[in-house]
Amino acid sequence: MAPIKNVALAGAGGAIAPSILGALLSSNFKITVLARSGSNTKLPPNTSTRTVEYTLSSLTPALEGIDAVVSTLGPTGGQQQRVLLDAAIAAGVKRFIPSSFGCDLENPKAKTLPVFKDKVEFEGLLEERAKEGKIEYTVLYNSAFLDWGLEVNFIANVKGEGKVELYDGGESKFSATTLGGVGRAVVGILSNEAETRNRRLRVHEAVVSQNQLHSIAKKVGGKSGEVEVIKTEDLEKFGYEQLQKGNLGMETWVAFIKRALFGEGYGGAFPKTDNEILGVGKLGDGELEEIVAKVVKG
C-alpha cells in the first residue's frame, strides 16, 4: 500500500489548527487546507486551499486524491465532522484523524461527561467504519494544552491577575502538551502508518500540577493573586444544574472539562504515552520554566 502523501486539514481557523498546519507544512507531506467559502482565516503564504461547503456534494470532490484528513473542527462542528467523514470515505481517503484532542475519552469517568458526548459518539462511529474496512483512523489525546492553557488562564493563572482558582487544592497532577507538541504528534501519526493504524494514542510533554506551575511563576517574577479553592466535584454538579436549566453556554461546558482534567480518577494524567512512536520528547525543567516565564512576562 502506498504511503500517505497528500493530507487535508479541516478547521484551520481554530486555536490548535495553526500549530498543526505549521508542523504539516514543515514535513514532507503535501498539504491542502479545506477552506469555507468566505473564510477570513489567515494562512501561511502559498498554502494550497480548496474552497468547500460542509455538504457531501462539496466535500467529496474536494477530497479526491487525498490520503489523510486531519480535523480540527471546533466543539460546534460535530455534524460537520460526520459529513466530512462520509465524504472522506466516498473519496477513498485512507486515514482520518478526528478533532478529539484534549482529554482521554477512553477513561470510563471522563467519557460519561456531557461535554464529550459528540466526541465519544464520533470515535465510536470511526471505529465502526474501520471495522467495516471503509477507512482507518487515529485518535490523539494530549490532555491539557500547556502554553495555550496558561495564556488564557485555563489550567493556571500564572499571571496572578484577578482570582487564582485552585482545583481540588491545586495538587492534582495532569498531563500537558504544547500546541507545537500536538502538531509534531500529528506528523508522527502520519509518518508511522502501521504503528498508529486504528489506535487511540496519548502524548504529553510534561506532567504538572497547578501548584507546581504557580511555584515556577513565582520564581520568574509572577504575581500572587487572591486564591480560591474549588472542588471539581462541585464543578460537575454546577454543570449538570446548568444543563437542567437549559444553559448550554461555555461556562457549563468548561465546568465539565475542568472536572475531567483535574478530578481524581478522570484520567487527566496519562500513566503511559506513545511519545516514542510519535517523535515527541519530554520538556526539561528549564524548558517548562521558559514556557511559564513567557506567559508571566507577556
Explained architecture:
The protein has 298 residues and is an alpha/beta fold. The protein has helices at 17-25, 56-62, 78-91, 117-131, 146-151, 179-191, 193-196, 210-219, 232-244, 250-262, 275-278, 285-297, and strands at 6-10, 30-36, 48-52, 68-71, 95-97, 136-141, 144-145, 163-167, 174-177, 199-202, 206-208, 226-230. The strands form 3 sheets. It has a 7-stranded parallel sheet, with helices on both faces. A 3-stranded mixed sheet has the order 7-9-11. A two-stranded parallel sheet has the order 8-12. Helix 1 (17-25) links the parallel strand 1 and strand 2 (30-36). Helix 2 packs across helix 3 (78-91), helix 3 runs parallel beside helix 4 (117-131) and helix 9 (232-244) runs antiparallel to helix 10. The N and C termini lie far apart (48 Å).
